[in-house]
């Protein structure tokens, strides 16, 4: 049979049909009406955290997810630093933005969950697998939850700016060195650091409760967004000490990774992302 070349209109109709079907699946997946049995939270121990971090390192080595973050993630960091360097008004927000990775981290790591999932299933890992999330029926729920975390991140930056204005501000610092000196050697600087740490911990806890296992659960099972968030909160309530320990590990690793001009984040973020998948597998029955 002779092959024919489809006309642009047929391509457009086929594309619209495929897109419409995907959107319909996505909208249906966001609800939780068809769930017959809710996921159950397991009791966690420190061994689960250690195992998850070790498995995350193995996935990182096998998937070379650092390449993905180097290509996609680092230009965004560079653009952010360039924009911030143009205005001294934004200088006090550098640390809050770095800490904000703990809030936005689950969104950035969605592709890493997909890679760990495929490797766990026995497939050869490829960093291009991370883009398979876009075709997932759970993409709508992931997007909505991601927007929630983005809004939380913005509110955190506003709060951090208000704390700076009430302590060392409202005038912008003269330089990075002058700002660092004020933070370390003045009473107002200590108040700003302590208040910022407490408020930041509250925002990080809110993000942790909502997203600890939500994103990997959405990718792994057809549970819908409400059930995914409820399960994440359930895991936190059943394992408060372990989950808080995990949050401290994540926050500390992000700060340490950001010290050498953010270069360490190329390794820290992918490892934590892969490790989160394995923690989810041990946390949800």
TrEMBL record:
Q: What is this protein called?
A: Cytochrome C oxidase subunit I
The residues that cross the membrane are 67-87, 93-113, 134-159, 190-219, 240-272
Superkingdom, natural source: Bacteria
Could you tell me the keywords of this UniProt record? Answer: Membrane, Transmembrane, Transmembrane helix
Specify one Pfam family.
Answer: DUF2189
């Amino acid at each position: 049979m002779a092959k024919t070349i489809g006309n642009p209109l047929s391509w457009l109709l086929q594309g619209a049909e495929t897109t419409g079907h995907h959107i319909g699946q996505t909208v249906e997946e966001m609800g939780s009406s068809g769930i017959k049995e809710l996921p159950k939270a397991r009791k966690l121990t420190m061994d689960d955290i250690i195992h998850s971090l070790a498995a995350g390192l193995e996935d990182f080595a096998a998937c070379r997810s650092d390449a993905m973050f180097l290509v996609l993630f680092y230009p965004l960091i560079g653009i952010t630093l360039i924009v911030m360097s143009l205005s001294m008004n934004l200088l006090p927000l550098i640390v809050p933005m770095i800490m904000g990775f703990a809030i936005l981290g689950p969104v950035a790591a969605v592709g890493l969950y997909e890679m760990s999932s495929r490797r766990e299933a026995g497939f050869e890992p490829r960093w291009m697998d991370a883009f398979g999330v876009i075709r997932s029926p759970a993409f709508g729920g992931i997007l909505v939850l991601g927007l929630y975390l983005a809004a939380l991140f913005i509110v955190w930056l506003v709060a951090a700016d208000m704390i700076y204005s009430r302590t060392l501000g409202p005038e912008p610092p003269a330089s990075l060195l002058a700002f660092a000196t004020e933070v370390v050697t003045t009473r107002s600087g200590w108040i700003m650091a302590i208040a910022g740490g407490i408020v930041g911990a509250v925002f990080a806890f809110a993000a942790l409760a909502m997203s600890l296992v939500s994103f990997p659960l959405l990718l792994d099972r057809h549970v819908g967004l409400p059930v995914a968030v409820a399960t994440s909160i359930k895991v936190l309530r059943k394992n408060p000490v372990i989950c808080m320990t995990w949050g401290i590990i994540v926050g500390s690793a992000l700060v340490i990774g950001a010290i050498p001009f953010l270069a360490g984040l190329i390794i820290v973020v992918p490892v934590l992302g892969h490790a989160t998948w394995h923690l989810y597998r041990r946390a949800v029955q």
